[in-house]
Amino acid sequence: MTKRALITGVTGQDGAYLAENLLEKGYEVHGLRPYSAVPDEGRIEKLEELKLHYGDMIDGGNILRLIDAIQPDEIYNMAAMSHVHVSFDVPEATANINALGVLRVLEALRMMGSKGKDIKFYQASSSEMYGRSPAPQNEKTKFEPCSPYGTAKLFAYWTTRNYREAYGLYAANGILFNHESPLRGEEFVTRKITKAICEIEAGLKQKISLGNLDSKRDWGHASDYMEGVWQILQAPEADDYVLATGEAHSVREFVEVAFSHIGINLAWEGENINEVGRNKITGETLVEIDQAFFRPNEVHHLLGDASKAHNKLGWKPKYSFEGLVEDMMRADRIIDKQSKPRAA
Ligand code: F7E
Does residue 137 have its Cβ closer than 6 Å to ligand 1? Predict the structure, then answer.
């Protein structure tokens, strides 16, 4: 029998990769997206079989009606206000979507009684919940979130566990470390870097402005992680799993590796806000620091230990750090696509 999946936040990076993955596996896939006056379907345009519905995490009645009408076998909650820095500006909206939104879905499942118990629920938890807790982090590490995004995600994490224990729902958390791809939003640091470097190469931009270069992240590829997310819901018992590569790199290293793809080596000069990255050969300034990109509170070092997912689910990411940067640079290259010579 064809399995039916419901993905919230289907227009985002993760929603798009997951929808494609599940369609390939033969699922009937329904996607929820909030109403937006500006078209936001770019990432899912090619997924013709995907069935779209208007759904909003701040509307409990809408969520209940949709789940009841679609009767999915699996629900993947990928909807979120996902930008950590922006969450400091809109903390209440972040909590409403990222924390209470999850409660609304779980309440809908609870209200559906025995029908709700047949539906598996996946919550997109985040490594941001670890905050300042020392690396490496795994399922047993203490949570110490330090952003409105992190605290809202932690509420959702515990609510998922609590509904599993209290009401016998199949409700699982995937604690995903940063995962990137050519579909990553341009306001996240990796995509901001690859896109800007390709624009510099094409002569459309002169330099990139960044914030904290020394912050370290465990970056994987979203396509690997969405396969892991599916595997989490195939386990006989609902449980919580970290998905990570086990390798951390600084923002600075990401910038250096990405620039190497257009044949540029960087030399760093100066300190703190006055630091710049120059082209080693020409001396041209290509990276500068802008205070506006620093957060009121920073998570310095995230490095995941995904042994549990390896051992229990057999999950292992395919992409290396270098492979990830290469894939993102290949997709953002303007010069190669137009087959023009490189800009000087
Ligand atoms: O920042 C530093 C910044 O915005 C990464 C989300 O998917 O992963 C993501 O959250 C690091 C931070 O991602 C800039 O300070 C420096 O230390 O790419 P990001 P994030 O905050 O780690 C987690 C797991 C999630 O769950 C989130 O939804 O890079 N950084 N300069 C910068 N960051 C940005 N955005 N822009 C800069 O110019």
Answer: no
**Torsion-angle region of 285 (φ positive above 0: left; ψ -120 to 50: alpha; else: beta):** beta
User: CA 296, CA 315: separation in Å to the nearest integer?
Assistant: 35
Nearest to 20 by CA among 9, 29, 32, 8: 29
For residues 154 and 164, what is the distance between their CA atoms, to the nearest angstrom? 15
Cα 139-143-146 angle, rounded to 5 deg: 140
* Token couple for 177: 């470390």
In whole angstroms, give the CA distance from residue 317 to residue 320. 8
Both tokens of residue 100?
Answer: 């209470």
Find, among 147, 134, 290, 285, the residue nearest to 212 by Cα. Answer: 290
Question: Average of pLDDT values for 14-35?
Answer: 97
Q: How many contiguous H segments (helices) and E segments (strands) does the chain have?
A: 13, 15
Ligand 1 pocket member 210 (CB < 6 A): yes
Cβ atoms within 10 Å, residue 167: 15
DSSP category for residue 100: I
pTM of the predicted model as reported, rounded to 2 decimal places:
0.96
Model confidence band, residue 101 (pLDDT cutoffs 50, 70, 90): very high
Ligand 1 proximity of 189 Cβ (cutoff 6 Å): yes
Residue 157 has pLDDT above 70, yes or no: yes
Ligand 1 centroid vs 193 CA: distance in angstroms? 12
Is 86 within 8 Å of 97 (Cβ atoms)? no
Mean pLDDT of 102-123: 98
Determine which residue's CA is closest to atom 31 belonging to ligand 1.
211
Atom of ligand 1 nearest to the CA of 211: 31
CA distance 342 to 105: 50
Quick one: DSSP state of residue 45? T
Q: For 200-213, what is each residue's pLDDT tens digit? A: 999 999 999 999 99
